[in-house]
């Protein structure tokens, strides 16, 4: 998000990603959800900065895969 050079967007994204994680932890009651690793966002930020929507879509899907699998696994247990 910093690549956008938009402080409001960066702050909103930071708040949003933390809020989503906390909501999932509360809803699913599991403290084993994957931690947010900001370095994992590098490919997505690079794709956005380069203006490549296809690369950005691939990077976004890859970024969400680990938390998606964790949520699916937790839901399957309940």
TrEMBL record:
Top-rank taxon, per record: Bacteria
InterPro entries, alphabetized: GntR_C, TF_FadR/GntR_C
Domain GntR C-terminal: residue ranges: 2-65
SUPFAM superfamilies reported in the protein's UniProt record: GntR ligand-binding domain-like
Keyword set, alphabetical order: DNA-binding, Transcription, Transcription regulation
Protein's recorded name: GntR C-terminal domain-containing protein
Protein source organism: Streptomyces thioluteus
């Amino acid at each position: 998000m910093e690549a956008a050079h938009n402080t409001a967007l960066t702050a909103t994204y930071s708040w949003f990603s933390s809020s989503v994680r906390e909501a999932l932890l509360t809803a699913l009651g599991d403290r084993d959800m994957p931690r947010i690793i900001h370095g994992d966002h590098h490919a997505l930020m690079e794709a956005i900065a380069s203006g490549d929507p296809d690369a950005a879509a691939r990077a976004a899907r890859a970024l969400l895969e680990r938390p998606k699998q964790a949520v699916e696994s937790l839901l399957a247990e309940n």
